[in-house]
Amino acid sequence: MIVPQHISIIMDGNGRWAKQRGLERVQGHMEGVKSVRAVTEKCVELGVKYLSLYAFSEENWNRPGEEVSALMSLLAKCMINEYNTLMDNGVRFRVLGNRSRLAPELDEAITKLEKATENNPNTTMLIMLSYSGKWDIMQAARKLAETCKPEEITMEAIDNALVTAGVPDPELLIRTSGEQRISNYMLWQTAYTEFVFTDTLWPDFRKDSLVAAIEEYSRRDRRFGKVK
Ligand code: IPE
Ligand code: IPE
Ligand code: MG
Q: Is 119 a catalytic residue?
């Protein structure tokens, strides 16, 4: 099995998981947190350097207010409850996205957890929150417009202006729940990423499902435009 350096996941299907069981959508999100824990532990065990997780898109702000606040309070709870698990597993925690849209208290709690875990040596977990790929490219373009001459806007300069600066592009992107679209996720960074789609709903996606996705990735022939 070839283990990627960077695995990214569009964690989808929490609502449907809950609906199938006659539960509230938020209960699907709560069960989804357990999958995040399981997958993170497996990444540590396998030596995956970066695990990025699409947790909330810019478009998700348009969901009913009730669901948005339920998700935000769940996230706030995680900032406290997940501290021990992150430390025990040596996981570095970071949140990337349009953080100016987050409630100041949540943003502060995130910064605190980022600081507390910054020297952890194992997997870096990147929670993509209030994130969208087009927004990322736009904020990078604005930054470069302020600091660069046109000829200084190189591919590398763009890489370094994105919120994922310093993180290698994901070799593998997994999307759960049967949807086969990018939903405004990392548009620039997935230029040569291998996509694995699975019908499994996110709350059911655990360690074995991750290994199955990595095995599928390992069977892919990555040519990067060349002839092999
Ligand atoms: C993914 O599950 C989690 C978020 C987008 C926050 P969904 O909430 O999209 O679940 P479905 O797609 O409605 O089943
Ligand atoms: C994408 O899921 C965003 C996250 C998983 C956070 P959605 O459920 O919001 O995507 P669409 O609406 O089906 O494209
Ligand atoms: Mg969805």
A: no
pTM of the model: 0.98
Give residue ranges with CB within 6 A of ligand 1.
11-16, 56, 60, 71, 177, 202
CA distance 61 to 68: 7
Give me the helix-helix angle, 104-117 and 65-81, nearest 10°. Answer: 30
Distance (Å, whole) CA 115 – CA 79: 12
The CATH architecture of the domain made up of 6-132+171-218 is 3-Layer(aba) Sandwich (3.40)
pLDDT in tens, 156-192: 999 999 999 999 999 999 999 999 999 999 999 999 9
Q: What are the extents of the domains in the chain?
A: 6-132+171-218
d(CA 39, CA 124): 13
Angle at 101 between CA 96 and CA 105, to 5 degrees: 90
